Amino acid sequence: MSEPKQTKNVGTIAEPPSPSSVDDLELVREREKAPINEFLEQRHPLGGVPGWKACFSARYRGSIVAVVVVGRPVARMADDGTELSITRYCRRDDRPANTGSWLIARARDWARLEGFDTFSANSGVAGNYGTVYEAAGFECTQVRQADGSGWLSHGEDRDTWEDYERRKWVYQLRPDNTPVPDGDSDE
Question: Residue 147 has what pLDDT?
Answer without folding.
Answer: 64
